[in-house]
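About this split. The held-out portion is used to measure sequence recovery: a designer receives only the structure tokens and must propose an amino acid at every position. Recovery is the fraction of positions where the proposal matches the reference. Here is one held-out target exactly as it appears in the evaluation file.
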């Protein structure tokens, strides 16, 4: 299987060549950058140039960029509003789009294949008017990203706007048939189960976020540390082998819980599943 890693594992640290060297040394050539400004400051041209130079020096192309969730340096703890493409208020929606576009512009120095986008905020309730708002935003962002060589992927997230069924409904409603999916195992586990979510979205999946939880919180544990049935999940993934990488999106809970060494053991365990 083709494995990848999101820099979400290092999101509390400023992204550096040292972190990227560790990721590469662990065997990962498919890398997703998590656009949180305390980690990867897409507003800072010097920082973007440094990261772009590392990718050029190692002859790697960035697999994906996760769109920012907040515009500040502390994920909204100082009171900044979250970013959402589905705000009903036009001013908020435009501010969110502008921030996402700022992140997408790193493609001028650091090309990437996919832009991973959430539709709505955690636990957000469904409203058809929010579909219309998201349609306006995503239609604009699709064009903006395409001009820079990137494709927008929608991610299944734990809210009523982006369950697997609602994502397909959104695609049908907006007639944006070219939209594809980044399949998140942890989010699927929280809102109905990984297998039914995968079967619903499988034909549109081109990338993944792979992590585990116990259904109560979005823990971003290593696979096998939560309650997902990984034997079934891996078999489902193998049924479409080559369609997408298994890209880990993990959270750092301390060196004893998550390390690149432990992740290598998890990858070996996944590979052993037939």
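Reference sequence for scoring:
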């Amino acid at each position: 299987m083709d494995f990848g890693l999101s820099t979400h594992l290092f999101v509390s640290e400023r992204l550096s060549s040292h972190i990227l060297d560790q990721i590469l040394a662990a065997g990962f050539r498919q890398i997703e950058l998590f656009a949180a400004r305390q980690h990867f400051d897409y507003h800072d041209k010097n920082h973007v140039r440094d990261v772009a130079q590392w990718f050029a020096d190692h002859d790697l192309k960035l697999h994906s960029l996760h769109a920012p969730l907040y515009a500040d340096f502390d994920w909204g703890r100082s009171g900044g509003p979250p970013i959402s493409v589905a705000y009903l208020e036009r001013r908020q929606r435009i501010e969110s789009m502008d921030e996402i576009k700022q992140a997408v512009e790193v493609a001028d120095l650091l090309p990437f294949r996919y832009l991973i986008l959430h539709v709505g905020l955690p636990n957000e309730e469904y409203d058809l008017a929010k579909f219309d708002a998201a349609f306006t935003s995503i239609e604009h962002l699709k064009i903006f990203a395409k001009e820079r060589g990137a494709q927008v992927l929608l991610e299944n997230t734990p809210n009523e706007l982006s369950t697997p069924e609602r994502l397909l409904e959104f695609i049908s409603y907006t007639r944006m048939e070219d939209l594809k999916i980044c399949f998140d195992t942890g989010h699927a586990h929280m809102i109905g189960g990984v297998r039914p979510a995968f079967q619903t979205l499988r034909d549109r999946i081109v990338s993944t976020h792979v992590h585990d939880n116990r259904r109560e919180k979005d823990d971003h544990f290593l696979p096998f540390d939560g309650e997902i049935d990984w034997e079934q999940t891996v078999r489902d993934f193998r049924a479409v082998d080559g369609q997408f990488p298994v890209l880990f999106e993990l959270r750092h809970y301390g060196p004893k819980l998550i390390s690149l060494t432990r992740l290598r053991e998890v990858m070996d365990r996944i590979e052993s599943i037939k």
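Annotator remark: The CA atoms of residues 213 and 219 lie 5 Å apart.
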